[in-house]
Specification:
Blueprint (H helix, E strand, L loop, with lengths): L4 E3 L2 E3 L6 E7 L6 H14 L3 E6 L2 H4 L2 H5 L1 E4 L2 E3 H7 L4 H14 L2 E6 L2 H8 L6 E3 L7 H8 L5 E4 L5 H11 L4 E6 L14 H9 L3 E5 L5 H8 L4 E5 L17 H18 L11 H7 L4
Parallel strand pairs: 3-4, 3-12, 4-7, 8-9, 9-10, 10-11, 11-12
Antiparallel strand pairs: 1-2, 5-6
Helix pairs in contact: 1-5, 1-11, 10-11
Length: about 290
């Protein structure tokens, strides 16, 4: 049995309802009003939290990478795109205000130390560490500086690498997220049984961050024990943006949350019993016993 942790006012662990995160990420396309619409869609779907991404562009990417040609709504280079997708202080102040108004938690995956320091000013309930950062020991330790719960994605990583990251972070207030880092992921590469493998190996809460097309695998992940579920949310999968195709539109997101809550209700406690509602049927149909 893995231990539970507290994020905001929610408990995360085997004996608690799945903590469902709508990842907005960069699906806002640099548009604050679109970001607020995505927050509203997550609230309407019944999500527990929304998540953004924060980068210091000139730290995370090399000058060569930023200079590469790439046509996009903000200009002609990869740097124009990366900078255009980043929100600053004013935008995050409005995101914080809007989330408080809508009574939904928000946090971010921070790709560098300065971004952690930036988001910390908003008193987030936790941090998400992206799969790409799993091997960045300095960044892992910097997250721990603030003593907040951490959700660590483990895509494109070996168990040995995960072992090392867990050793660096320690197990206090830590949740591991199984994921495949391809956008969108192939069904045959999701390997959902790793959720149980990691829960047994680390004795920690384990969740799932899905990038597949469709809902069934994510719902299935919660059946086999994922105590956190993260999926990208979008208003339109055909919208411009690199993550849109691996995202879920509002109606589908609401259906997924509804089905997960229904499954949680129906799983029960594992103790076999005869329910009061069965007694009249038993009396009517059984001849003996």
């Amino acid at each position: 049995m893995s231990k539970s942790i507290t994020v905001g006012e929610r408990q995360i662990g085997d004996q608690h309802a799945c903590f469902i995160i709508a990842e907005i990420g960069i699906n806002h396309n640099g548009d604050l009003e679109l970001a607020k619409k995505l927050i509203d869609a997550a609230v309407d779907a019944g999500c527990d939290a929304v998540k953004f991404q924060k980068r210091t562009v000139d730290v995370v990417y090399t000058a060569e990478e930023l200079a590469k040609p790439r046509e996009n709504p903000f200009g002609t280079t990869n740097g124009d795109l990366k900078r255009g997708l980043e929100f600053g202080k004013a935008q995050y102040q409005e995101i914080d205000r809007h989330c408080r108004e809508k009574s939904i938690m928000w946090f971010a995956s921070c790709w560098d130390e300065a971004s952690v320091d930036f988001i910390e000013k908003f008193n987030p309930p936790c941090y998400k560490i992206a799969s790409a950062s799993l091997t960045d020991d300095d960044l892992l330790r910097h997250h721990r500086k603030y003593g907040r719960p951490l959700l660590l994605s483990t895509g494109m990583s070996t168990l040995a690498q995960v072992d090392h990251a867990v050793e660096v972070l320690g197990k206090d207030d830590l949740v591991l997220l199984h994921t495949n880092s391809t956008y969108p992921s192939k069904l045959e590469e999701l390997n959902l049984r790793v959720i149980r493998t990691m829960a047994d190996r680390y004795q920690l809460p384990v969740g799932y961050s899905g990038h597949e097309v469709g809902l069934a695998p994510s719902i299935g992940a919660t059946v086999i024990g994922a105590c956190v579920l993260e999926r990208h949310i979008t208003l339109d999968r055909a919208m411009w943006g690199s993550d849109q195709a691996a995202s879920i539109e509002p109606q589908g997101f609401a259906r997924m949350v509804r089905d997960i809550r229904g499954i949680e209700l129906s799983l029960g406690d594992g103790h076999k019993r005869v329910y009061d509602t069965e007694v009249p049927i038993m009396k009517k149909l059984r001849r003996k016993g």
